[in-house]
Amino acid sequence: MFGMLSAAWRYRFFIFSSIKTELQTKFIRSKLGGLWMILHPLSQVLIFAFVLSAVLSAKLPGIDNQYAYAIYLMSGTLGWSLFAEIVNRCLTLFIDNGNLLKKLVFPKIALPLIVTGSALVNNTLLFVAILAIFGALGHIPGVEVFWLPVLMVVNIALALGLGLALGVLNVFMRDIGQIVPVIMQFLFWFTPIVYMANIIPEEYRNWLEFNPLIPIITGYQNILLYNHAPDWAGLGVIALIAAGLLAFALLLFRKASPEMVDQL
Predict the structure, then answer these.
(1) What is the spatial distance between Cα 196 and Cα 168, in angstroms, rounded to a whole number?
(2) What is the tens place of the pLDDT at every residue in 30-74?
(3) What's the distance, CA 201 to chain centroid?
(4) What is the largest CA-CA distance in the chain?
(5) Cβ distance 23 to 34 under 8 Å?
(6) What does each C-alpha distance from 220 to 23, 30, 145 come to in angstroms?
(7) Using CA atoms, how far apart are residues 242 and 156, in angstroms rounded to an integer?
(8) Overall average pLDDT of the 224-238 stretch
(9) Using the 8-state DSSP alphabet, how is residue 106 labeled?
(10) Residue 161: Cβ-neighbour burial (10 angstroms; 0-12, 13-18, 19+)
(11) Of the residues 68, 76, 233, 248, which has the maximum number of CB atoms within 10 A of its CB?
């Protein structure tokens, strides 16, 4: 395990240059360039915000801002987009790069690290755009925003652990690549991003405790909307789960790595 991580460190310049190249080539022929990275999630937010705020006249308790739902949605979307991008890209990462793995000699762990770095850059740009929109809507987050990097670390650890494990398993069992996108759709609607958790009937609300994303997403919402610190008790449990899952994924990756190229 230490050898695998030390190899990634030796190839750190390859990883950083690959992240830069990926971001450049992704939008090299696009006139809007990197703006597309933030326009897609923001357009989804605007649609939900219009339906909930304007059409259904939904209100957020304790928030007087007329754009409160848009702020709530953007806060949750920021956390979800980072998680979803890492998981979805890691799912087919080794299959998509099969030819590269066969032709070049480099530590395979570099691939999920490149994906994570690229997703982090995308999410940071989205965060900057969201802050600008918050300012235009008359909402300025407080000093609690400095807790956001802690949430991002936990979010990345959980997403990378899950995505890396699923990506390895998908090499050997291709049905996983078909099932996971469906599960991700369920997970999105099972997470209070579009709705408030307190609107769920009491008899079903206990099921939310099985969703590891809820302490993370509510942490984003508490910081960016309510100017509150995250729930450290719940977040601490998820951090331990994320660390255990990431350790398991790295172990699985190391064990399966010699056989993966033969399966691609």
Answers:
(1) 35
(2) 555 556 666 766 776 677 666 665 554 455 666 666 677 778 888
(3) 28
(4) 59
(5) yes
(6) 26, 31, 9
(7) 9
(8) 91
(9) S
(10) buried
(11) 76
CA 45 vs CA 49, 115, 133, 168, 199: distances in Å? 6, 24, 12, 32, 20
Measure CA 233 to chain center. 21
- Candidates 97, 54, 91; CA nearest to 73 is 54
Structure tokens at 39: 């326009």
Q: How far is the C-alpha of 71 from the C-alpha of 75, rounded, in Å?
A: 6
Report the alpha-carbon distance of residue 213 to residue 183 in Å, rounded. Answer: 14
Give the tokens for residue 119. 């997703």
Tokens of 2: 């230490």
Convert the pLDDT of each residue in 92-135 to its tens digit.
999 988 888 877 777 888 899 999 999 998 899 889 888 888 88
CA 2/CA 153 separation, integer angstroms: 21
Tell me how far CA of residue 203 lies from CA of 190, 207, 208, in angstroms. 15, 9, 11
- Amino acid 153: pLDDT: 96
- Both tokens assigned to 95: 């299959």
Find the DSSP H helices in the chain.
Answer: 2-10, 12-26, 36-49, 68-91, 93-96, 98-103, 110-136, 148-172, 176-189, 202-205, 214-224, 232-263
State both tokens at 245: 């899952």
Amino acid, single-letter form, for residue 140: I
Per-residue pLDDT tens for 166-195?
Answer: 999 999 998 999 999 999 999 999 998 888
